[in-house]
């Protein structure tokens, strides 16, 4: 699975901006791998976001609802590519970069799949929020 996920992320990173619309199957496969690993069913027969949390500032969605955001294939690709570019830009200027990823959601989708591209000593990671649940 790790090799397949790495391949999908590489495809997203290496695609031209114009090719992102054609990458929907790539993102669908990526989401499927994460759903399998976390045992999250994105589309149960009956779903009410009853695991959401009410806060003074509004509603914090459940893990299922947060995971469903990954299916927005253009958004997912643009965010992954943006985070990748930001890390690359920082590594070009600094020997070490600390990544603080708040609100990771159940997949950690914007950073975790990119980690294979960066050596651990150069990109230290700090995840805050709902870290992935790998079964």
What do you see in this structure?
With 135 residues, the chain is α+β, with helices and mostly antiparallel strands. The chain has one domain. Helix content is 41%, strand content 13%. The chain contains 4 helices and 4 strands. The chain has helices at 2-14, 24-38, 63-68, 73-93, and strands at residues 53-55, 58-60, 97-102, 123-128. The protein has a two-stranded antiparallel sheet with strand order 1-2. A two-stranded parallel ribbon has the order 3-4. β1 and β2 (58-60) form a beta hairpin. It is globular and about 45 Å long. 17% of the residues are buried.
Mean pLDDT: 84
Largest sheet: 2 strands, antiparallel
Cα Rg: 16 Å
Please report which band the strand proportion falls in: under 5%, 5-15%, 15-25%, 25-35%, 35-45% or over 45%: 5-15%
Helix count, per DSSP?
4
- Structural class by secondary-structure content: alpha+beta
The helix fraction, in percent, is: 40-55%
Number of strands: 4
* Strand arrangement in the largest pleated sheet: 1-2
Sequence-ordered SSE layout with sheet pairings:
Blueprint: H1 2-14, H2 24-38, E1 53-55, E2 58-60, H3 63-68, H4 73-93, E3 97-102, E4 123-128
Parallel strand pairs: 3-4
Antiparallel strand pairs: 1-2
Helix pairs in contact: 1-2
